Amino acid sequence: MAEKIATLSSNGSTPVVEITIGKAQFGKYELYTWDQQGLNPKLIGSGLNTDQIPDIFQIGMSAAALEECLLSWQCIVSALSTGPGQEYAVSIKLTQDQVLIPITVGGKQINNPYVQKGPLTGTKIVHDYVRFKVQ
Amino acid sequence: MKNRIIVVLSTALLWGALASAEDCVTIRSAQPLHTRSGRTGNTFSIEVPVTSNPQVAGTLATSLGVSGADFLISFDIPADTLIQTQTDVKQLTVCLVVAAKPKLLRTTEITRSKPVATAVPGAASASSTGASTTGGNAASPQSATVGSADPAALDLSTPESPAFTVLGLTPETVVRPSSPGELASTLINGFDQNGNYQTGVAIDTTPYLLLAGGNITLAKYRESRMIQALSRLQFSVATTKGTSDSDKAVRASLGVRLTLWDRGDPRLDTELSNCMAQSLEMPPPLNPLSASTNVELLEQELELKAQACRTASQKRNWNKSSFVIAGAPAWISPDGLSKNFRLDGGGLWTSFAWGFENVPGLDRHAQLIFHARYRNNETVPDPRTQGAFLRQNSTTLGGRFRFGLPTLNGNFEGVYVNNRPTIRPRETYTRYTVGAEKRLANNLWLSVSFSRDAGRNLGDNNMTFFSNIKWNFLKAPKMQVAQQ
Fold this sequence. Notes:
The complex is a heterodimer of chains A (135) and B (484). Chain A has one domain: Sandwich (Lipoxygenase-1), CATH 2.60.60. Helix content of chain A is 0%, strand content 56%. Chain A contains no helices and twelve strands. Chain A has a seven-stranded mixed β-sheet, with no helix packed on it. In chain A, strand 7 and strand 8 form a beta hairpin. With 484 residues, chain B is of the alpha+beta class. Chain B folds into three domains: 145 residues, no CATH class; 251 residues, Porin (Beta Barrel); 47 residues, no CATH class. Chain B is built from eight helices and 23 strands. In chain B, helix 7 runs antiparallel to helix 8.
């Protein structure tokens, strides 16, 4: 599958990522940056969706330094109820200077925030990544 | 051809086991494995493909003295026996259900059974005719022990569907208030409160969470009573068909139900979320460019821990206090033809449950429910003229005392009923009910009740038996936690 490309402005400040684990399910997450080869993960944020701490993190590198780097997220989502028909939703919002960063897949723009959702049976690890390009 | 280890529990052994008092048989392993399971004829099989379990292939081969083999465990079972399996990453539990009553395999040491190096044609396929199985989960003969286990995964019986309630198809008159699931279906077969046999289905949903829940974190849910109320707003649709000579009507209803307050709501159980926060450990960084990590296995390991947290939460919360209001219009076709459907009035009701919080001895084992219901313009069979119907308004006030455990509970119920038919004198009577609910399997409940009316002047004061199988589907089988 084609990679998701997040296009940054070279003149902009460091991007910001916000993660939301919804559907009122239990959620726990970690966010990492990786180098161009997908190596050397660096934790940029972690947390829970049960507390009052904002789930918003500055990526901590200049836009230029992020060229071809990866941003990944991995979440543990677990249903609190054992009832049927549970669902999960994880959304990732990427901004630079408070403007949504365009995200494309195979040249076609997709939504930002980018949402992963579906039925939840028990516990699920939701994970994905984007690659940064700088213009 | 693949080599396979086969362990056969004979039919004789099985039938001997059916008379035992155990619930299930559990195969435990020290190593996580993927399995496939299926049923062919009278053989139920569980296969452990080595190709899907390369990380433990060596251990398996050493332990069982074979190499490059797939491992197959099969059971000969009676043709009319339903098998249910519950699997997790390190164990597999097999339960038999005969005539809707859980029956049980004997605790057995697999190593005492003689392995046979042959294949069973057609066994271990992914199909599962007549069987409820999980796929891609784990079991292992590696530790070579089999022990009985009580299924520890608890799921409370679903709340009565409001659409069923207005159609008079809940086993108890007093409706239990609690938070609904997001999407559930209930099948029902049994006698209604007029003594006529009915079959029906209801679908219940909470649209707010389904449609707008993407941005509702657990923290937001806990902060806002409005979000809690909207998330518990339940809509349901139900239809029933009478099958007796005196009632062949088809009925339908659209119900709405709002749980205004629920101290047993698992989303509000901070102990539950704290348990998950502590026990669900984040795996090492998943390399986005490499699929070397088996995420499915990690999920299974995490689910075991999550299930333990849920089980403890359900034990704490099953009888907590709650308050619900509901209403539903109804339609009826007395002859069952769709062209003859017409409005059949509607109902409004409310229930308040008290969980005896802070009352030692009762706070974990009992619940008292108060219920009030008004039903207007309802078409009911005329008890004095077979095949004829009359219309009536009715008011019901009552209470129910529930006691027991999350998986088995009994109840006593007493209600006062005031019926005001259009063409008969009004009647006031009392109804006393004794009932029980038993969890047969995850999301499968058997509910039975016996009731007796006193003081009826239109109908008989006969004793009525009501049985109800509640089955929630739209959900894959869930894993269980071992009871060591």
